[in-house]
Amino acid sequence: MRFGTLDFTPVADSPGLLAAPAAAAVGAMQAADAASVLVSEIDPGLADTAAFCEHHEISMGDGANCVIVQARRGERTWYAACLVRGADRLDVNGAVRRHLDARKLSFAPMDAAVELTGMEYGGITPIGLPADWPILVDESVAAHERLIVGSGIRGSKLLVTGALIASLPNAEVLPIAQPAA
């Protein structure tokens, strides 16, 4: 399937284009869901949303960023993933902090995000995240027909539906995005 300037193929044809946790999660999906996850190899230097979208002629609104946040309340620290379209920004200190009932919320340190997910920074995907992490999916992501998301590595991207993202274990759909200024 062609999207923008990229040709996407089923993940089953190129499992090496996913980080190990993402490949394992796709492998554990029901056959119809797994078959709907498509992958395309990209230049790792173009993995960041703005550069990727411009180069491959894809709208920022057709991509979803997976942002890892670190929540704290008292002595407890936990992590969550948040998905917003590339054209939006995450309401970290409003909707997300309230929903997670965190006293303090921040973007997870890069080293922690990479170590805990087993994925590359700039390529983290909601598919294959640690089983106990909440996945907060903005309503606009869940409603989107075709979305580009990370694959767990910087050298490829996945093409999925918002419905698939919303159906992931621990996924919750809620309004967590604000239009980018």
From TrEMBL:
Residues 44-163 form the YbaK/aminoacyl-tRNA synthetase-associated domain. GO terms for molecular function: aminoacyl-tRNA deacylase activity. It holds the Pfam family tRNA_edit. This is Cys-tRNA(Pro) deacylase, prolyl-tRNA editing enzyme YbaK/EbsC. It comes from Agromyces cerinus subsp. cerinus.
